[in-house]
Amino acid sequence: YHERIRHQFILLENPEKKGRIALLHAAQVEKMKKAKEWRRLGVIGRNEVVEKGMWKLKKEQERWDLFIPLRRLWLGYMSELLGLASPPASGMPSSAGMHAKLVKADFHGSIMTVRRSNKPALIGLSGIVVHETENAFRVVTRTNKSKLIPKHGSVFAFAVPLYSTLDTPSSSSPAAGPSSSQSSKTSNTVLEAPHIEFELYGNQFQFRSAERASKKFKPKETIEL
């Protein structure tokens, strides 16, 4: 009594707890406030995006050369994300340090190639990623066709530049003629320059790009197809 009770405040009844209905009402009010704020900022949700068809490409938009600028933007993004050195640098960067950054990277603009798949018709399919969902990559191929490639059951290959592309002069400079500009649109990719190639296992990559940015990946064994 003297050690545990004397001079102590004792609560003789349970503290007030919110009921299930009150908690649901509070969550609904919070959701409505967030939706109102999104409407004020002009932000639309995924369902509305799907209804409006904003992720669908028109037939005239399924062109390889149309997404070459996106490809160049992705190369610069990779150069900055991985901290690649300028071309005169000697030696190769450590690929082990790249893995943690690549699993959280954005792949819109990368060239994805199906290396292995449980669907033989997909093997060898390659193109620039124009849209990534939780379960698939949508790519535009060199033959100007849009293809939806499921992640499940497929192993993809993609390449990152060995050296930084941020200091590379643009092909659209005044010194470059029309013919060189046209050829760069069709052939100037990372595959024609020194690069490092990685494999991506689709079964372990079934997340949206926004979710990967905050997800903590743990190393685990990968089962071959």
Automatic annotation (TrEMBL):
<dbReference type="InterPro" id="IPR002730">
    <property type="entry name" value="Rpp29/RNP1"/>
</dbReference>
<feature type="region of interest" description="Disordered">
    <location>
        <begin position="169"/>
        <end position="188"/>
    </location>
</feature>
<dbReference type="GO" id="GO:0000172">
    <property type="term" value="C:ribonuclease MRP complex"/>
</dbReference>
<keyword id="KW-0255">Endonuclease</keyword>
<keyword id="KW-0378">Hydrolase</keyword>
<dbReference type="GO" id="GO:0006364">
    <property type="term" value="P:rRNA processing"/>
</dbReference>
<dbReference type="Pfam" id="PF01868">
    <property type="entry name" value="RNase_P-MRP_p29"/>
</dbReference>
<dbReference type="InterPro" id="IPR023534">
    <property type="entry name" value="Rof/RNase_P-like"/>
</dbReference>
<keyword id="KW-0540">Nuclease</keyword>
<dbReference type="InterPro" id="IPR036980">
    <property type="entry name" value="RNase_P/MRP_Rpp29_sf"/>
</dbReference>
<comment type="similarity">
    <text>Belongs to the eukaryotic/archaeal RNase P protein component 1 family.</text>
</comment>
<feature type="compositionally biased region" description="Low complexity">
    <location>
        <begin position="169"/>
        <end position="184"/>
    </location>
</feature>
<dbReference type="GO" id="GO:0005634">
    <property type="term" value="C:nucleus"/>
</dbReference>
<dbReference type="GO" id="GO:0030677">
    <property type="term" value="C:ribonuclease P complex"/>
</dbReference>
<dbReference type="InterPro" id="IPR016848">
    <property type="entry name" value="RNase_P/MRP_Rpp29-subunit"/>
</dbReference>
<dbReference type="GO" id="GO:0016787">
    <property type="term" value="F:hydrolase activity"/>
</dbReference>
<dbReference type="GO" id="GO:0033204">
    <property type="term" value="F:ribonuclease P RNA binding"/>
</dbReference>
<keyword id="KW-0819">tRNA processing</keyword>
<dbReference type="InterPro" id="IPR023538">
    <property type="entry name" value="RNP1"/>
</dbReference>
<dbReference type="GO" id="GO:0004519">
    <property type="term" value="F:endonuclease activity"/>
</dbReference>
<keyword id="KW-0963">Cytoplasm</keyword>
<dbReference type="GO" id="GO:0001682">
    <property type="term" value="P:tRNA 5'-leader removal"/>
</dbReference>
<protein>
    <submittedName>
        <fullName>RNase P</fullName>
    </submittedName>
</protein>
